[in-house]
Model the fold of this input.
Amino acid sequence: MPLKVWIDGKFYDKADAKISVYDHGLLYGDGVFEGIRVYSGRIFKVEEHLTRLFDSAKTIRLAIPYSREELRAAMTETIKLNNFADCYIRLVVTRGVGYLGLNPAKCPRPSAFVITDTIEMYPREMYDNGMAVITASVIRNHPNAISPRVKSLNYLNNILARLEAADAGVSEAIMLNHEGNVAECSADNIFIARHGTVLTPTITDGILEGITRDVIIDLCTRLNIPCVEKTLQRHDLYIADECFLTGSAAEVAPITKIDGRIIGPGTPGPITKKLQEAFHRYTREG
Ligand code: PMP
Done:
């Protein structure tokens, strides 16, 4: 049976799940979204994702025409209809159909859709052995442009960073902020460990406030691993004992080489492995 996609209250087969070429989500990247995992039939951190979606929408002055309950129900129904126990959800709200100018006032009704599908961010081997990354020349958004805290439909900076990674023959790129400090990866947050302490950039360092990031910070507390949110420079990354990235799609993935520098012994470190295991347990058991 073809996958079903929810668009504004109706289900469509994947091949027929289409939005208008006049939708400002497409014409201008005018919209917001969430990427969410489902583990054993449960939507992981659904309330946190809905809060971030509504927060992002508020900043871009997009009035989502559905309540949290309606969006939660749309996701639950879509998962059920597609018979998924484990999957990835893409929840998107666009400004809706308008005219060819920018003016969002000409878009009378925002649109929402829910896609459920499988996703694999990096090959399995990278989760076991670690991955090489580079720092990109293209930076994260300046906070006075569209804030990096808004999960908007415009990922062009991040896509350019990924292209730089591909040029360098690696799978991921670290992005700096407008001050040259470390922000995050193209679609994931970044952590390092040094001398037994876990460190990650602060919210004001130009990052998306990742929901997986929050879980990892909590798990550090539970596991008695010191964890500090701190501004980091590239030098901090190079001299780290361990490094890993986190995200809903990527989960917890070890980084073992940055800009040609081997991190620690060049294999995933003990803290990374402990957090990877704890995260997987948490996604199933809470
Ligand atoms: N940073 C960026 C830029 C992202 O797009 C994402 C989500 N893929 C993340 C970090 C991680 O956030 P989360 O853990 O909520 O998926």
Summary: The CA atoms of residues 88 and 119 lie 6 Å apart.
